[in-house]
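A further point concerns the way the authors explain their paired sequence and structure data. An entry of this sort, consisting of the sequence and the corresponding backbone structure tokens, reads as follows:
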Amino acid sequence: MNVKEYQLEILNTLMRIFPDQEIIQEWFAEMNKYNLYSPRLDLAIGPFAKNQRLIEEYDRLQVKHQSFIEGLIRIHNNNLQPFYNEYPNRDYYSATNTNQNARCFIAIEIENSVSRKHLIGGAINASALGRFGLFIAFTEEKFNAMKKLEGYFQFLSKVGKNTFNTNNLLILFKDQFTDYINNTV
């Protein structure tokens, strides 16, 4: 299965988990009108805050889907356990309060064959655009690179360096995510 086929497979399953929300494959953040770089997410779960803030709507959705989100956080914490000997586990409160003014409810980046520099861009896009960002590794190599990148962000924060807050970004391997959402519906 290639990335596009995987995207379609999880899109169809997510539509059953979030039946009242629009879910868009290859969603552009539409920053062009500000003459800015316009990131594209592999998948995005709405509602979409284009010209308004949807903070209360995202609050409502996170309460409605709290057990789903907590399950993703548990998987993420298990994946990053070696790093969390030095850095704290992700918790529901920190994940839900990192990006109050998001552009979508859940931003999903699926990483397969990009460079490490593009991986950083994907992490920032998912974290900055979504109330929750999901960073899904398509290969073992990308999974390990993503874990190291998260460790790097946490290290920078710990030693007082300038960094990007990724507390709303959850790292999962593609099979973990597929199994989890299939068991949710």
Strands lie at 23-28, 40-45, 104-111, 130-137, 169-173. Residues 3-184 form one domain.
